[in-house]
Structures are given as structure tokens and as C-alpha cells.
What we know:
- The chain is mainly β.
- The chain has helices at about 1-15, 140; strands at about 25-35, 40, 45-50, 55, 70-75, 85, 95, 100-105, 120-125, 170-180, 185-190, 195-200, 205-215, 220-225, 235-245, 255-260.
- It folds into 2 domains: about 20-140, Cupredoxins -  blue copper proteins (Immunoglobulin-like, Sandwich); about 170-260, Immunoglobulin-like (Sandwich).
- A 5-stranded mixed beta sheet has the order 3-9-8-5-6, with no helix packed on it.
- Mean pLDDT is about 85; it is low at about 15-20, about 150-155 and about 160-165.
- Keywords: Signal.
- InterPro entries: Cupredoxin.
Amino acid sequence: MRLRLLVATLLAFALMPAATANAAVERFIQAYDSPTYKSVFWPKTIPAQVGDTVTWRLTQPGNPRAATHDVWVVPPGTSAPGTRLGISFETPTVSQVVDAPGSWFFYCSIHAGLTPEGMNGTVEVGTTDPGPPVDPGKPWETGEEPPDPNALPNDTTAPTAWEEGDNVPPTLKLVRATATDTGARARVTVEEPVTVTARLKKGKKIVATKRVVVSEPGTLNVNVNLPARLRDKAARYRLQVWATDGVDLDSKVAAAWIDFKP
């Protein structure tokens, strides 16, 4: 009797279908411009399984700080620049099937690309299921700040033209930063026609901003003035300066402390 029961049990297991891999799922990443104008992908790193689809949400409905973003993907075993999937003023989302294990790098070429301070991240793809997808939500509705302290500040809008293949950001050198009677002065050098933005921050709050359109390379002064209500108070401000070229690529941000004394 026991022998017949054992044989029946083994036969039942033998006839069961083989276990299959977990079904592929869609995983999401959100482009995000924070309240302090940090441009990041949210989250910066996600796990995935071979065969999953990764979708980047490029638009931020209702976010007044939303900027233009694109997505480039560099699969494992390949080198940059990789493949451009799309840009936010052409499509609200772009997707990629991650069909090989390893680290899939992705980046926004408009905001410093794959540089350490750039808007970039990785999809870590394995052969086993890392768990259910996590929706990134709408962080601009909660005012969350990204964890990456090196993310570039950005308050740009969509460019009027897109130059395919122009992934080289402009350069800006901060030669000198000094306090003035009304705020601060940044002496900067640029190497191409750009818009130079200078701003003063008190903690996380932006208190003054100045933009200057530069038509040719050279050295110039950019004065940024404090609001009149702040000019009779001694305080320390953070001066930040960067350049933006004609296709909305930003330079690295140059910064200095300004001790303002009325």
C-alpha cells in the first residue's frame, strides 16, 4: 500500500509542468526638477529582471520647475553615447526592454550626461525577479528633494531647436566673486555664445537671480542685486553661476560664498 502511494506521488510530481520564470514587468523612472532646481532621475538606480521593460516618464504635469529632458541608454558591454530614446517635448515617455544582464546606464544629455554631477542612473539587470515594480509617483507634488547633492540646478524651458548629436555642454570659469553695495558681482569667462545665470541663495531659498545673454566668447561681469528689503541686513549668501548654450546644455555650476555688509 505504502509503495503504491509513493509511486503515485512521484508520478504526480513528474507530470507537473516545469516551473517558469516570473513574467516580465514594466518598471518606471521619473525625470524630476526639485524645488531647489535639482534635475535628477527618480529613482537614480532600480533593479530589474532580464526581459523587463523600463519606462522613463519625461514630463511633470503641474510642476512649474519642469525642464526639458532626454534619455540616452548605454547597454552592458557598450560605450557612450549609446542610443537616444527621445526627448520630453517630443514624447511624454520612452521605453527600453532590458534584454541582457548587467548595468544599463542612462542619462540626460542636456544636464551633464554621465559626468559625476550629471543627471544619470543605472538599471541593474539580473536573471532573477527583484520584486514588484515601485511607482516613483509625483515627487514635485510633495516637494521632496533628491538625495544626490551634486545634481545640477536647472530652471530652463524647452529649446526652440534641437541639434542632434550636440552633447557637449558649455564651459564657464568663475574668475572672481565679490560683494557689492547691492548684492554680488561674478567675473566669469565663457568660450562660446551662452546665457549666463547668476543667483544668490540663503540656505535653500533663492533670493535673487540675474541672466545675461553673451553673444561672443570672453570675460564679463555679472551683477546680481538683492531685493531692497534685504540690503540693510548683513548676511552670508551662496553665489552660483552657470552657462546655458543654444540647445539648453548647462555648464558645471561655479559657486562662492559672499559676505554681504550694508
